[in-house]
Amino acid sequence: MPGNEAVQINNVVGQQANLAITNHGSDWYYTVCAVMGVSTLAFMGLALRKPQGHRLFHYITAGITAIACIAYFAMGSNLGQVPIQAEFVRPRSHWVGSAGTREIFYARYIDWVITTPLLLLDLLLTAGLPTPTILITIFADEIMIVCGLIGALTRTSYKWGFWTFGMAAFFYVVYNLLGTGRSHASALGGAPKKTYMLCGVMLTFLWFLYPIAWGLSEGGNVIHPDSEAIFYGILDIFAKPVYGALLIWGHRNINPSQLGLHIRDPGQTSEKYHNNGLHNGHGVTGPDRAVGTNGTHTTGASAAGAGAPTATV
Ligand code: RET
């Protein structure tokens, strides 16, 4: 029985880089594709056990792994890639030919430009952040990913200019996560705070490793595309299914209304979710409730009902 022949079948003349993934890289990409697919089914399955109004975080997380599943299918199939002349051509035995092009997977960035904002949304909604803060953080994240893509497609040392802009945008994201987000989560206290801290620390740590992986692969052409596959693959498994599972686990005791998310669900019948002791009973539970009019934090949950407008999703 022939094994995985994707690399050979999709090896189109003129579109194949001198340094590209081998069958091993392809096998690994397909493995991660399967992990993402199974995770998607698991998150959707878990959603079925909740009333519809309590499924937001399940759906966001399942959407993230579903997109990654498709991106990994593309990469395992040697698709969604383009050969780019490397800035530093490193002579090695496994290079085919001598032109010095490296296989760059732009499919990765299409995945990231959709999924990293969703990963941030998962976290920032948990902190009950005001919508404008969520939007600007996601905007900076989009700049970061697009800079990474353009840098990866650039042949000259100018690629590092894009990497630097990407890093600047990344620092702004981190500032919002560790500064603004953390203080809002702390004001909420309880399960939202715990979940935010755990997932926030995990996200920040993992995300710092991505620009390093980029520097070693698309940037500096230091590691083989098979090693790039392993590096990004392991990071993605932790950053998507593992992070998503922890986040959903953390949300088991969180009522979305606690976070200022008033989700209409007329079909909701379970008494458990109306009277689970989590709703503070003040009617207004917006994320800004713990923030005084001068922007300083007041006495946390006791400030509930301060009259801040809340979002209805
Ligand atoms: C790039 C290069 C430009 C500078 C920076 C980067 C950061 C990328 C990150 C990606 C995160 C991806 C995730 C994927 C999940 O599967 C674009 C590599 C800072 C942080 C979490």
TrEMBL record:
GO molecular-function terms, A-Z: monoatomic ion channel activity; photoreceptor activity
Entry's transmembrane regions: 28-49, 56-75, 134-154, 160-178, 198-217, 229-249
GO cellular component terms listed in the entry, alphabetical order: endoplasmic reticulum; plasma membrane
Key words of the record: Chromophore, Membrane, Photoreceptor protein, Receptor, Retinal protein, Sensory transduction, Transmembrane, Transmembrane helix
Keyword Transmembrane: yes
Record localization: Membrane
InterPro entries in the cross-refs: Arc/bac/fun_rhodopsins, Rhodopsin_retinal_BS, Yro2-like_7TM
Matches recorded under SUPFAM superfamilies: Family A G protein-coupled receptor-like (SSF81321)
Protein name as it appears in the record: Family A G protein-coupled receptor-like protein
Cross-referenced PROSITE patterns: BACTERIAL_OPSIN_1
Extent of Low complexity compositional bias: 292-313
Primary subcellular site in the record, as a coarse category: membrane
Residue ranges, annotated region (Disordered): 270-313
Keyword Metal-binding set for record: no
UniProt similarity note: Belongs to the archaeal/bacterial/fungal opsin family.
GO biological process, one term: phototransduction
Protein's membrane topology: Multi-pass membrane protein
